[in-house]
Design brief:
Mean pLDDT: 81
Low-confidence stretches: 246-265
Largest sheet: none
Radius of gyration: 26 Å
Number of domains: 3
Length: 355
């Protein structure tokens, strides 16, 4: 599939079809409907780019229903696009109306409506959908910015920082630079605020008579400030490491036209794994040691998954990070419940937080 995607991206659909066809044969014995949906839809797109619309429609008819709207709607979108090319507006309109929510493909979805009405000579409706294209693009951009700044307002929760940075990198380098500048300025403001608090506290301490008690309070305050600074530096370092990692991945794995084009490359990076465990140890008071004490047979992989769950990563994101299937995550969670001797009524995340 990846080889086919690269050939399709480089405008070599005939070579892409060779590898997509091989993927189709290899997937026959499997039961993964999402994978099969991607394969048949990619084959249809390759034939469409070669101008073989009937062949493209044949493979789109072979796409299995996934019962996941995002995947099924993309199939409807491709069918509608082909019918517009074949000058069959009624058929195209039927499939466009089956798309209840266009999600991220909203601009392209409205563009098909605009093209359809232009072919029919209804320029008033064509202009209406042209405006919706602009509104959809603006809405996507605003949503990404809201997610980014919401993450910063909640003390740079690692999950939201990572999600925001991923979206900004995928969008464009300009937004990534803007985010880094904003983060640096905010870090500087925090440091200045901490120094200001330190000076105020020091002046208060010099005015008191009991130097011993005041010295102890000052030491505790310095320790607290040091932890805050260390946490800030650690989060900043994690941010820079992951930005570099994703920049490399974006070069090695270019965006493709298939359903996986919106996914993020898996993080097979031991530095990232160590950092997420370190952050969870800081927040939940050495949770990795507590887990090991609870059951010495737990592996590093078990502890990593527990930390990812504590950081509010869902099964889909954990599967992407570890480059495994979602079913494997569900099975691993079941085995972890047995290892941790959890009751059926125990909620997994609540159990970890109470350790």
């Amino acid at each position: 599939m990846n080889l086919g995607n690269v050939y399709l991206k480089t405008q070599q659909p005939d070579s892409a079809i060779v590898y997509y066809t091989l993927a189709k044969h290899l997937s026959r014995s499997g039961t993964d409907t999402i994978l099969k949906s991607n394969i048949y839809r990619s084959l249809a797109l390759a034939y469409f780019k070669m101008g073989k619309n009937k062949k493209a429609l044949y493979y789109l008819n072979q796409v299995p229903a996934t019962h996941q709207a995002n995947y099924d709607y993309k199939s409807f979108y491709l069918v509608a696009m082909i019918f517009i090319q074949l000058d069959k507006p009624d058929s195209a309109r039927y499939y466009l109306n089956r798309i209840k929510e266009p999600y991220e493909m909203a601009p392209d979805y409205y563009l098909l409506w605009q093209t359809l009405y232009e072919k029919e000579g209804d320029f008033k409706k064509a202009l209406y959908y042209a405006n919706k294209i602009t509104a959809a693009k603006d809405s996507l951009n605003r949503r990404k910015l809201v997610i980014c700044f919401a993450g910063m307002e909640k003390k740079y929760t690692y999950k939201r920082l990572l999600s925001s940075i991923q979206k900004l990198i995928i969008k464009n380098n300009t937004r990534m630079i803007l985010f880094l500048v904003t983060l640096s300025v905010l870090s500087l403001v925090i440091i200045i605020f901490i120094l200001w608090r330190y000076r105020i506290k020091k002046r208060e301490l010099t005015s008191k008579k009991k130097l011993g008690e005041n010295g102890k309070k000052l030491a505790e305050m310095e320790k607290e400030n040091k932890k805050l600074l260390e946490l800030q530096v650690k989060i900043h370092n994690i941010l820079l490491i992951n930005i570099e990692q994703y920049r490399k991945n974006s070069i090695k794995r270019p965006n493709t036209a298939d359903a996986n084009s919106h996914n993020i490359s898996p993080i097979l990076n031991t530095t990232f794994h160590e950092e997420i465990i370190a952050c969870m140890d800081f927040i939940y008071q050495d949770i990795s040691k507590k887990l090991k004490e609870h059951n010495p047979l737990l592996t590093e992989h078990d502890i990593l998954i527990c930390c990812l769950l504590l950081a509010d990563f869902d099964n889909g994101k954990i599967a992407t990070i570890l480059n495994i299937q979602i079913d494997s995550i569900n099975k691993h969670r079941h085995r972890l419940r047995s290892k941790l001797r959890m009751q059926n009524s125990d909620h997994f995340i609540d159990f970890l937080r109470k350790l």
